[in-house]
Amino acid sequence: MQPGTKSGFELDARLESNSVPVMWLGLCELRLVNDGRWIRLMLVPQRTGVEEIHELSPLDQAMLTFEICMVSKALKHVAQCDTVNMSIACNAIRQLRVDMIARSKGDAGWPDTVWDDEPCKPRDRKSQLALLDKLRAAM
Amino acid sequence: MQPGTKSGFELDARLESNSVPVMWLGLCELRLVNDGRWIRLMLVPQRTGVEEIHELSPLDQAMLTFEICMVSKALKHVAQCDTVNMSIACNAIRQLRVDMIARSKGDAGWPDTVWDDEPCKPRDRKSQLALLDKLRAAM
Prior knowledge:
Two copies of one chain form a homodimer.
Chain A lengths: L12 H5 L1 E6 L3 E6 L6 E6 L12 H22 L3 E6 L9 E6 L21 H14 L1
Antiparallel strand pairs in A: 1-2, 2-3, 3-5, 4-5
């Protein structure tokens, strides 16, 4: 079990294979999606069997908000983007998570959302490690 | 000014023309998007000049979370859907709002997101009023 992982919590295998851990927060595991085109993060509340935001306890809802705002601010700072898009869509994979992506005017997809883009080639190891360092330092 | 509207707050004209008011909550104006294909709601915090969730004050962040969870639960109940998708994407229109849409397995678009669908014909007046009544009763 990774340090910070809540006992009994299991991350969906498809989400795990498509991303790498950034850090563990009070409620969520924060992960970077393996897609070299975008800086895309995923906040996964470490709670078993929760599919909708309103199914979290009031305390967990408050913690999630706090962590969303912290990550959104850090992402905007690191990516130097125009805005942060956010999505909850537990359609195919029924595990609650919040996706966040750095977006800027004129990027490949602007002004539409890009949540359903097929995952693209991951960053090379050096770029990935540098990005993870920057994200951790900004939190 | 509508009852419940915060003084000085102005809803973007494009958002206003594409939706109708459901009710005013403590922080947000809750609106129903004019698209007969989906039950799609929009929560707009009544705060001027806010484009990102982390720009809200901590109290407003807490209120937004409370209102998101209340609306998500009501939407799931009224729509009898499988899940509620949620999106923040202030790309073309730079006013913070949370979009929510009722989704079910096998709907037109499943399992993708449908945020960028062109708005379709609105509901007829009778269906719209019935839906608004149901949503208000569930809140």
